Amino acid sequence: MEIVMAFVCGFLFMAAIYLILSRSLLRIIIGTGLLSHGAHLLILTMGGLGGTAPPVLADGVSDFADPIPQALILTAIVISFGVTAFFLVLAYRAYQELGTDDTTLMKGSEQDD
Q: Cα separation of 30 and 17, whole Å?
């Protein structure tokens, strides 16, 4: 199962890098979202997928799963949601001001100063 997850992580990272290198601001935002999802999946896969042990230690239980990867992913999801919301607002405001989402057209020239 870890092999399948490794290929999915690799595909997510590949698609994210492709989208981040594009000119459209919306594609860049989608690429950062895919990159964060790939990182979440990578952390989850590195933490171990199998097992029936509970994630917390209860009375009479000697074997338990490590809860750190789940806590890291939950924190990373919240942070990536906030960053994505900020990027969307920033892109919307830039589109309102400049009338385009093409990053090459957003560059100013010395004549604009």
A: 10
Report the C-alpha gap between 74 and 83 in whole angstroms.
14
Tell me how crowded residue 10 is: count the other CB atoms within 10 A of its CB.
12
Q: SS3 of 24, please?
A: strand
pLDDT of residue 50: 65
pLDDT given at position 105: 84
Tokens of 60: 């009479």
- H or E segment and range at residue 34: helix 25-46
Residues of the chain with pLDDT under 50: none
pLDDT of residue 89: 96
The answer to whether the beta carbons of residues 15 and 48 sit under 8 Å apart is: no
Q: How far apart are CA 35 and CA 56, in angstroms?
A: 29
What's the confidence (pLDDT) of residue 70?
83
